[in-house]
Amino acid sequence: MKKSIALLLILVLIISTFAGCGTNDNNNAVNENVNNSSNVNDSTESSDNTDEPTEPRILTVLLNSNDGWVRNFNPFANGSYDFVNGFMHEHLVLFDTMNENNEHMWLAEDVISEPDNKTLIVKVRQGVKWSDGEEFNAEDVAFSYTYSKDHPTIDRTGDWGENGKIESVEVVDNFTVKIVMRDANRFHRQDIFLQKMMVPEHIWSSVEDPATYVYENPVVTGAFSVVNNFTPEMVVLGRNPYYWKADQLEVDELRVPQFNGNDGALSLLQSGQVDWAHIFIPNAEETYVQGDSNRKFWYGMNDGVRVAFNYMTENKGNLEAFNSPEFKKAFSMAVDREGIIDSAVFGYLDRTVPPVTGLPSALLGYTDDAAQAEHAKYTKYDLDAAKKMLTDAGFVDTDGDGWVETPSGKTIEFDILSPAGWSDWNDGAAIVAEGLREIGINGTANAVDLGIIIESWESGAHDALYTANGQSSNIWKFYFDTIGDASRVKTPTWWSVTQTNYVNEEINELIAKMPNASDAELIEITSTIEQFFTENMINIPILYNGNWFVYNDSRFTNWSTAENPYCQPALSVHDMKVYHLLNLKAVK
Amino acid sequence: MKYISKRLGFYLIAFIAAITLNFFLPRLMPGDPVQMYLAELYESGGRIDEATIRAVEELFGFNTNEPLIVSYFKYVKNIFTGNWGYSFANYPQTVLQAMSRGLKWTLFLMGSGLTISFAINTFLGILVAWKRGTKFDTIVTVGGQVMANIPAVIIAIFLSYSLAHTGIFPRGYAVTPLMVHANAFEYVKDVAYHAFLPVMSIVLMSLGGIMGMRANMINQLGEDYIVMGTAKGIPDRKIMLAYSARNALLPVVTTFAMQIGFILGGSLIIELVFNYPGLGKVMLGAINGRDYPLMQGILLMSTIIMLSANFVADLAVLFLDPRIRTEGKRG
Question: β-strand A234-239 against A224-230: which pairing, if any?
């Protein structure tokens, strides 16, 4: 008996040590490999330059929270990694969402918009090579666009198919591509190049199913193409030997450690070894900076955050209230925006209140003065004025339960939903509800599972959401996605957009005119929409989301900062991150 | 033999019940993998068009039109043919690959936790039973009882805030990230440093085991053969360890198997608190992404671990206790 118990114990011990050892071996292998590859890297360094071989300059970034890296550089795969976008596969044109969507020609030398608003002539950059030595040319560009025609699973930007944007793509000569769009639209160039990665025809043309293809050895035009090491814990990438901007790139090795969730990211940041991350850190001075003058963050402005009403709610009382501009203006004045910025986001975000349409920072040039003047009146925290406005409009407590009823005597009671775990939003919604209760509106903040919110979109069962407005590449697309596309009402397909179930035929007609409007007409239309939205308080604007840009300038300097915002600094999926990368200077 | 087949029959029914729940529970949650994937894309700043959604739906091969019952039978068939499918979120990894890394660390935590707590509980149980009625007995018994009734999550959070957030122990990971370990010893030291708090939580939450050992021990101490031994002048130490403790251990083997289930559940939560890269973390990721195949896989794996542990315990008891064997023969 004694023996069997001992046996059992030994068994448990063996299992546990076995488990430990397995990972132990792995990890040692990682370290050895990392060292080896750095050596290899050193030697290529020295052969490229005549300089003395130096230590590789390593940039460590935090991208994609996950449970372990899987070796697949496929840019079309589900959950394709963000470092593949930009750092490996590049784009024709980059748009700086920080600076009014300014264009930076990248793999395109020039893009000519023909006067018909349908045809785009792409002059492909000459002298660019794929990382296997093949020439990058017009064939590759055309292929990158037509590839999704036969593979609907990778057509994420809706280029082809029934309502596709593109009519034809044609190679004119070795370095010229002609793209003809289906409809005339003055905004095509902002729409068609954004997040469109170039892929080599000589590799992908033989791939049968691009979405599920396992792409282990990437061939790219971008800065990093050599896989120095790949483990579930860390991806280590080395320089592309043929990189066309090699002389500007001061980073020899890109390291992307695995992390899971914000806590994991924070522990990595605390180690001081991370150079660049995309994360909101609560109480950053104490938890991240910790007195280290090199650890910095700048959140800037991204898309707008708002309270969105459901204009198709089945609750009659709420619906009556939501349709009253006075009710919503009172609502807006009861929102302590300063309080939200100070406590929900620790004072790290800009204090600009977005327009009622929620124009993202890149499109702020389209605001209208009259609308903004009206906007200023009703976005200031003033409980007394809010209360008075409610009373004047007939929203009073008629049944004595302490909460106001609609002018026709119906009960108003609603939840403001936000996804549980998105702490800054949960706190923001709570502060909104607090203000509402002060003026007698029975609103409650409720943080629920994201799945419940998504389901409520389809059923229309919710009343109000604490949510964002979303980013967009141009003004027409922004309005169309957030207001003008009535087909998205009460469907689960309106992620990040409408979320109000608000339909206004006249406004939609105006939006439909925008693609072919002249400059003057465009301003007229945007002004009309901005004014209408502000007068009717369709949304309650709250604040601007940040770009969650976190960096450490002890190893690299010349980051895009508040003082010198030369480009959108966010890491994440933004195309501009490669531009930012090439501006970094290694500390000598 | 009849005993074994009876147990096997029971396990089969339990297994089928478990896989049925594993299939339906994840699907009862609101939201589907496509939506959750889009949510993630959205959160990281991506642009989502209607076209994106259509493409993603096609990509996932997620067919909402297939009747649930048809999917269910496909799933059962796949389990028995060993095809657990691909993880949605970790493609091209299979479910087994996606959870293997987490599983290793979870087994490591559970193994160490079980071994240590078994040793502590047995030793303390013997000791307090021997010294029953003393102050030491009261403190250990009451202490053990209290710890046994505090949920694992509370213990873990308490340890995390008192020891990890103050910087004495690490706040996450199984090894220091980005660290190059000079040698195997350094590595083991690093692993032990990171595992200390999670293992300690498991040990603390299992302290209730002292009670079982103590009770068995006291029962044994009242037996005639102990009185006889004492009368014959056998040394106390020998009576305590070789006579009574040896027999008192027998029932503990059964509870040991049950403990495995208890600890597996606890360790999943403990991992989340300590940001430890075990199965619990993988599970949370799978839930957030509505990664049905991976969720099913993890639940199935837990079921298999639980049932096998129980089965081993049944066999062990059969082996250790001749009475059950004869019972089987008689019936």
Answer: antiparallel
Please tell me the number of Cα atoms within 13 Å of A356 on its side-chain side. Answer: 32
Pick from A495, A412, A502, A483: nearest CA to A453: A495
pLDDT in tens, A396-405: 999 999 999 9
**Who's near B323: CB < 8 A, 6+ residues apart?**
none
Q: How far is A174 from chain B (nearest CA, A)?
A: 31
What residues form DSSP beta bridges with A123?
Answer: A110, A176
Neighbouring C-beta atoms of residue A242, cutoff 10 Å? 18
Are the beta carbons of B31 and A449 separated by less than 8 Å? Answer: yes
Q: In chain B, what residues touch A19 (CB-CB under 8 Å)?
A: 104-105, 107-108, 111
Confidence of residue A495 (pLDDT cuts 50, 70, 90): low
Nearest to B247 by CA among B223, B282, B281, B273: B223
Contacts of A452 in chain B (CB under 8 A): 30-31
Confidence band of A20 (pLDDT split at 50, 70, 90):
very low
Is the confidence at residue A102, as pLDDT, over 70?
Answer: yes
Reply yes or no: is the peptide bond before residue A115 cis, omega within 30 of 0.
Answer: no
Task: Report the range of poorest mean pLDDT among A215-224, A382-391, B33-42.
Answer: B33-42
ipTM of the complex: 0.72
Average pLDDT over residues A468-496: 80
Band of the pLDDT at A561, cuts 50, 70, 90? very high
What proportion of chain A, given as a percentage, has pLDDT over 70?
90
Q: Please check whether residue B181 is in contact with residue A27, taking contact to mean a CB–CB distance below 8 angstroms.
A: yes
pLDDT per position as a tens digit, A192-245:
898 889 999 999 999 988 988 999 999 999 999 999 999 888 999 999 999 999
Tell me the pLDDT tens digit for each residue of B59-104. Answer: 666 656 678 888 888 888 888 888 888 887 777 788 888 888 889 9
* pLDDT more than 70, % of chain B: 90
Of A31, A264, A470, the CB nearest to B181: A31
On whether the CB atoms of residues B105 and B277 are closer than 8 A, the answer is yes
Looking at A49-177, list the stretches that DSSP marks H as alpha helix, in order from N- to C-terminal side: 138-150
Picking from A148, A495, A261, the residue whose alpha carbon sits closest to that of residue B41 is A495
As a whole number of angstroms, the distance between CA A576 and CA B139 comes to: 64
| Beta-sheet strand order (sheet of A549-552) | A224-230, A234-239, A253-257, A58-62, A276-278, A549-552, A295-298
Hey, what amino acid is at A439?
I
Measure CB to CB from residue B93 to each of A12, A70, A194 and give the nearest one.
A70
Who among A20, A27, A78 is closest to B108 (CB)? Answer: A20
Chain B stretch 27-86, residues whose beta carbon is closer than 8 A to a beta carbon of chain A: 29-31, 35-42, 44-56, 58-60
Q: Assess whether pLDDT exceeds 50 at residue A132.
A: yes
A398 phi and psi, to 5 degrees? Answer: -95, -25
Count A/B contacts: CB-CB distance under 8 Å.
214
In angstroms and rounded to an integer, the radius of gyration of the C-alpha atoms of chain A is: 27
Which of A179, A187, A190 shows the shortest CA–CA distance to A117?
Answer: A187
Using CA atoms, how far apart are residues B134 and B144, in angstroms rounded to an integer?
Answer: 15
On average, the pLDDT of chain A sits at 87
Using CA atoms of B168, B174, B176, B177 in order, give the dihedral in degrees to the nearest 10.
Answer: -140
Residue with tokens 């389809």: A458
Q: Which residues of A touch B98 (CB under 8 A)?
A: 67-68
Cα B308–chain centre separation: 12
**Helix, coil or strand: residue A381:** coil
Q: How confident is the model at residue A330 (pLDDT cuts 50, 70, 90)?
A: very high
Residue count of chain A: 588
Q: With contacts defined as CB-CB under 8 Å, which chain A residues touch B31? A: 449-452, 454-455
d(CA A91, CA A101): 15
